[in-house]
Structures are given as structure tokens and as C-alpha cells.
Specification:
With 86 residues, the chain is mostly helical. Helices cover 79% and strands 0% of the residues.
């Protein structure tokens, strides 16, 4: 996109502004994703630790709807993030 910006006649300021704004939005979304992922991982860790103090870890994870330590929503978010950053 930067190459297009350099070669675009006349409207390069508008295109550069749009590109910069999109990069800022991407950075904001990426930061928010990392915060959310850290929160979810912290909650999962806490749940696993508290679940192990109960009678059975499998009972605790089945009550919370977790699949292999992660919910389907978590797995979907992580998969989407990985596909974006390839």
C-alpha cells in the first residue's frame, strides 16, 4: 500500500491519511485482542486451579463448558488472530 501511495498522483495525501488511520485502527484492535486474550487465559488458569481443588478437574471443566482447557470461542479467536498475522 505504501508503494501505491508513492505512485498515486494528486490524491497521495488522502491515501496516506487513510492508510495511516487504518494502521492505527489495526493497532488498536490488535492491542484489544491481546488484552482480551490475556484476560481469558487468566480466567481459564484461575478456573483450572480452582477446579483442581474441587473433587474432580473434569467435573469443573465440564461445568464451565471448556474443551481441552479452551472454549470454542477462545479457539476461534486464536485461529482468527493467527490467520491475520501470517
Amino acid at each position: 500500500m505504501a508503494q501505491y501511495c508513492a505512485s498515486a498522483p494528486g490524491n497521495s495525501a488522502v491515501v496516506q491519511h487513510t492508510l495511516q488511520r487504518h494502521q492505527e485502527i489495526l493497532k488498536d484492535h490488535t492491542n484489544e485482542f491481546h488484552k482480551t486474550r490475556a484476560t481469558v487465559e487468566g480466567q481459564l488458569t484461575r478456573e483450572r486451579l480452582l477446579g483442581s481443588s474441587t473433587s474432580s478437574t473434569t467435573t469443573a471443566t465440564s461445568r464451565s463448558g471448556l474443551n481441552g482447557g479452551r472454549s470454542n470461542a477462545d479457539l476461534s479467536l486464536l485461529k482468527e488472530h493467527e490467520s491475520i498475522h501470517r
